[in-house]
Amino acid sequence: MLFALFAVLVLAAGPALAQKQPAAAQPSFVSWQAPADGGTGGYSGTESCVSCHRVRVEQVSKTAHASTEVAGVTVGANCEACHGPGKAHVDAEQEAERTSTKNPEAAKLIYNFEGSPQQNSNRCLTCHGTGQGQQAFANSEHKLQGVSCDQCHSAHLVLPSDPRERVELSTAQAQLVGVPKMGEQNRWLNQSLLRQTQPDLCFTCHRSIEAQFALPNHHRVPEGLMTCADCHNPHGSSLAKPLQRKATAYETCVTCHVDKRGPFVYEHAGVRVEGCAICHTPHGSMTRHLLQRGEVRFLCLSCHVDHGPVSFQQSGQCTRCHVAIHGSNASEFLVK
Ligand code: HEC
Ligand code: HEC
Ligand code: HEC
Ligand code: HEC
Ligand code: HEC
Ligand code: HEC
Ligand code: HEC
Ligand code: HEC
Ligand code: HEC
Ligand code: HEC
Predict the structure, then answer these.
(1) Does residue 314 fall inside a structural domain?
(2) pTM score, whole prediction
(3) Does residue 100 share a domain with residue 10?
(4) Which atom, in ligand 10's list, is nearest to the CA of 320?
(5) Mean pLDDT over all residues of the chain?
(6) Bond into 222 cis (ω within 30)
(7) Is the C-beta atom of 140 inside 6 A of ligand 4?
(8) Residue 187 is part of which domain span?
């Protein structure tokens, strides 16, 4: 009876998420297949895991997953929601324990996320496939390159969970600025169950981006004052927002740089159409103001090719006169 109840709760969890986001499509349970199916659903219930996996049960019960509500009922730290039916595993482990034998096969009777990246992600996507942030995962570069949910997130805490424990951030800049360091468990619980804090997590794979952020002028991501996710959606984004950007080229930046948003009576079409990154490097650079080119003149002349005479007569920076380079309410020539 209890087993059947858990099976129902597990299967009901997806639609419950969908209810929170009415516009989203119903999740698909096609991938919801466990390797071992011991009879009626093959579920065993989280209580049956406690005796042998107490620490994990305690950990998971602190996460958002434990407070998952399905049809008004708290599912609790439901192990089988991710690992699938566990009855065959429980029976085999209990039998091994009773007879004091070793049965290495018993551990193989439950899904342990040693499948392909796709299979692993599908476990999560049965519920999260309709989540607003994760919807675009299916078409993301991360998914296409075989990065799965569990490479960035950890359902279980990876390090010892003493809340007083101090974790050292790896970058030199972080040490300098001295952002308060949270205990690893608090960090994990407060940072969407990420394996590591950003940007360290991202730098494990993106070494060239790490190098860009090490340049003298950079957005203060390594210092922990901003995150990669302020500008990117690590889960993917639509075609209109290439490079997994959170928003279109322009919107990505003006959420913070509100003074550049306008609307201006006289827009600089270069800003609005091409987006900020045509003139600025978003990560870091050697140049002041993160400009794509140190010599502003050459930046301007890359588009204003027909502007030879001006540059010849008026050497020096174009922005000496065209001060309202991001748009103006007073001058169509952006000079004030
Ligand atoms: C009678 C003891 C016992 C019970 C009950 C039990 N397990 Fe296990 N489980 C083990 C042992 C022993 C292993 C293998 C050693 C290890 O990894 O800790 C294991 C391994 C696992 C693994 C990893 C499998 C692998 O390939 O390494 C998962 C996942 C797992 N158990 C989940 C569960 C879940 C979920 C439940 C409850 C539905 C459960 N276990 C109940 C003893 C038990
Ligand atoms: C949100 C999904 C999710 C839930 C809920 C969950 N797990 Fe896991 N579990 C995973 C993933 C993913 C892995 C693979 C290793 C990792 O990512 O840390 C894993 C790994 C394991 C392992 C094997 C670890 C190893 O070192 O090989 C055991 C044992 C385990 N889980 C037991 C449990 C138990 C017991 C529960 C219930 C308290 C539970 N899990 C709940 C996703 C989940
Ligand atoms: C049974 C459905 C279900 C499954 C399977 C599931 N989740 Fe969740 N997950 C939820 C719900 C419900 C929440 C809480 C609601 C929310 O924050 O959206 C949640 C929350 C989260 C959060 C946010 C945690 C926080 O502290 O805000 C992360 C990250 C997450 N899940 C990752 C995963 C990963 C990775 C997997 C696969 C290993 C997975 N989930 C599998 C239902 C599920
Ligand atoms: C490349 C790393 C990466 C991968 C792969 C990834 N995530 Fe995330 N995820 C993050 C980061 C970083 C955040 C925190 C975002 C923030 O700070 O705004 C996050 C946040 C979340 C959240 C909570 C906030 C939200 O957007 O709803 C959920 C739920 C979640 N991820 C689920 C998943 C699932 C499910 C998958 C697999 C389909 C997945 N993630 C794959 C990095 C990743
Ligand atoms: C497990 C390795 C891994 C991790 C961790 C990882 N990435 Fe990636 N990421 C990749 C790979 C592989 C690609 C595709 C090749 C490339 O563009 O470098 C990629 C591509 C990208 C792209 C470009 C997408 C496109 O459409 O071309 C962005 C943006 C990105 N990652 C951001 C992040 C952020 C932000 C994080 C941390 C939250 C992160 N990545 C963590 C492996 C990873
Ligand atoms: C201030 C916003 C912002 C922040 C913060 C940011 N990015 Fe980007 N990122 C962008 C923009 C904009 C582009 C596209 C640049 C272009 O169009 O030339 C981009 C491009 C990328 C690309 C693809 C192009 C390439 O150079 O390979 C990757 C990968 C990437 N970012 C990863 C990251 C990672 C990892 C972090 C955190 C360490 C991060 N970004 C932080 C705005 C940002
Ligand atoms: C056509 C090229 C161009 C585009 C497009 C552009 N900028 Fe700039 N930006 C500049 C130049 C040139 C400077 C340096 C001005 C100077 O020399 O005083 C600058 C300076 C800045 C500064 C520092 C000085 C200040 O005015 O606050 C910020 C911040 C900035 N830009 C943000 C943005 C944002 C956000 C966008 C997109 C909405 C954007 N820029 C688009 C050329 C551009
Ligand atoms: C999450 C908020 C946030 C977002 C999003 C953001 N910025 Fe910034 N940006 C800042 C802050 C804060 C500074 C202040 C400088 C610092 O970090 O010390 C800054 C500094 C800058 C500067 C240098 C200003 C100077 O005086 O040298 C430029 C240029 C700039 N940003 C452009 C951009 C562009 C282009 C984007 C979009 C790709 C963007 N920013 C997105 C917060 C943001
Ligand atoms: C990405 C291309 C691009 C870059 C780089 C660029 N501009 Fe423009 N700019 C444009 C476009 C497009 C227009 C609109 C032209 C039109 O309407 O004929 C424009 C218009 C102008 C105008 C108003 C003139 C008019 O005819 O309305 C001035 C002044 C100007 N730009 C100055 C600059 C300066 C100074 C720089 C360097 C800091 C610069 N631009 C960089 C694309 C660019
Ligand atoms: C000494 C001040 C000054 C400097 C330096 C300057 N401009 Fe101008 N520019 C102006 C004024 C004033 C106008 C208004 C039209 C006019 O009077 O000819 C103008 C007009 C323009 C126009 C629109 C009219 C046209 O001829 O197409 C563009 C585009 C432009 N400037 C681009 C630039 C670029 C690019 C540079 C740097 C190579 C630059 N300007 C340097 C003062 C300057």
Answers:
(1) yes
(2) 0.89
(3) yes
(4) 5
(5) 78
(6) no
(7) no
(8) 135-158+174-230
